[in-house]
# Entry
Amino acid sequence: MAEITLVEAVTMALAHEMEQDPTVVVFGEDVGVNGGVFRATAGLQKQFGDERVIDTPLAEVMIAGMCVGMAAQGMKPVAEAQFEGFMYPMVDHLVNHAARLRHRTRGRLTCPMVVRAPWGGGIHAPEHHSDSNEATWAHFPGMRTVIPSSPSRAYGLLLAAIRDPDPVVFLEPKRIYRWQKETVEDSGEELPLDVCFVLRDGTDITLVTWGAMVKETMEAAQALAEQGISAEVIDVATVAPIDMDTIIESVEKTGRCVIVHEAPKHCGVGAEIAASLADNAIWHLKAPIKRVTGYDTVMPLYRNEMNYMPSCKRIVHAAEQVLRFE
Amino acid sequence: MASTIASFKVDYYQYLDPDGRLVEGSQIPALARDMKELVSLYRLMTLTRVFDKKAVALQRTGKLGTYASSLGHEAAHVAIGSAMREEDCFAPMYREYAAQFYRGVKMSDVLLYWGGDERGNDFSGPKHDFPWCVPIATQCLHAAGAAMAYKLYKQPRVAVTVVGDGGSSKGDFLEAINAASAWKLPLVLVIVNNQWAISVPRSKQNTAKTLAQKGIAGGLPSIQVDGNDLIAARWAMDKAVAAAREGRGASVIEMMTYRLSDHTTADDARRYRPQGEVDSAWNKEPLLRMRKYLMDQGFWDEVKEEELLDECAERVQAAVEDYQHAVSNDPQSIDSMFEYMFKNMPHHIEEQREYAKQFPAEGDH
# Structure
């Protein structure tokens, strides 16, 4: 069993599901011969043919709209948006159609489609290639937004996303596509959606995050441990709908919470988590909830992007502020 | 030195003129001699018109929400519906009732939808047909996706979609043409050009001579027909559907018609449209010419017309009663709002459902 990266785990999950389910097709720009600009679909067209791994004309509205049509007729299209910044033309089809087809037709038609996209900053990419737009998708009722943070979770969650009977936006943290390798068995076993993963147990403070920020958050937990502070780290993974039970349970134990995300602070997913904690766990809180996030600016060009991104230092700083309250 | 490397022409077809006479000098389609079929289609056009009038009246008396009338489009819509097989897929916009009635959608389904009840979209027609599509032109891509599915499954099925003259300005329509061309999809894109996109006339969408030529730009065979001429519209549909089914790819048909009604019951076209234009359009409307033709051929008369109108009124009244029964005696529960969000209801939606049930809205709504 080989050790693989997150992006290789994506490929492995796609191949597994295409093998198992003839209705699964991969659909997007450059996904075929080229294997995707990040190589997420490398080799798939060779293995499954050009009727299963389909290079499309350059038209994101078309990609999303045709996936709605295919899904409504019993297929399971897995679209690739080349970068998260090119997903915006897809909004009409995702929001007005994919997310509400089941509801509008009282279940007569459904839309089991997935839109995958490389997502987030930190790779020195050109303009419009580095957004963290998960809150955009998380806000709309009727679809799931899922973000893996390791090779094994990428494999298990993508399988679950493809098998899910409703639409899923699957955002792949491109900064950690090749950061760590993990042994992942091609077992076909999915991981549950709508569930948080506790990555590190702790008793003094809860650090809540997802995607590439798991890297800095785990580093911060380690730095805090060196100061004698025990931090629990939660990877939210499915940011819509959010498994608040796991987060609340942790905060009931620690009484302190810092939420970390790369996206802008205003109306970010962190705001929803903080509000839910205020609603459901305020008597367990010993300190205000802090958010460590990207800023409410556009994502800067790459020379400044690391000043935008939350760092281990910023997370530790926020944790220390929260820990001052007795 | 310049040389022409591409040029195009758009053919226009009309077989039955506004006076109900067959156009001389043209090869008349066989349908023009199939009086049984024409009478049957004329009956559906008439039923649709009687239904339409009733739906507008229901809205005016507060018994129906905003309604989009199909007045004047009946020939185009009947041609579309009657050219399809049940296993084909229809992706409508929101006023192609006659096409849908032909496919088994009930009048009470239409009333339920515009009457604010999602069960209208769970209609009695083919279960794979798409529901009404309000956002404009998005249905073109859903139809293209359905066509892609049939092509990949190697099924001899065709997807048919309708867009308006306004909708033909949207990217979705053009992207559907592109996709249908690139993959040779079994798709028929019908532009029902009724000259008005709410208050914006056709001339303000663009200065192209036809809208059909947009299909040619994308590589699809494209024609224009008199959409008030059932014979021409149906002939064009038959040809396009057959080509799609036989693997010869997609086509575009621009059907020229006129929106004799307001855009919807929430609109007042008198604000922006000269009455003279509407009056002259009434002389070209589709039922008038078909009735004349059938009468001239000895297959229709005033007595039959009166009987038909009475029968339509009865059927429409029965549909209204079904609709009113459903919304009054069997309304959807508060739960239904939450039940269809996901196959498996997430916890937070379950919580919101239980909360909502404690606060049912009061009074008549």
About this structure: Chain B touches chain A at residues 89, 91, 118-119, 121-122, 127-128, 130-131, 135, 138, 140-150, 152, 159, 171-172, 175-176, 178-179, 182, 336, 340-344, 346-349 (CB under 8 Å). DSSP finds 13 helices and eight strands in chain B. Chain B has two domains: 12-331, 333-365.
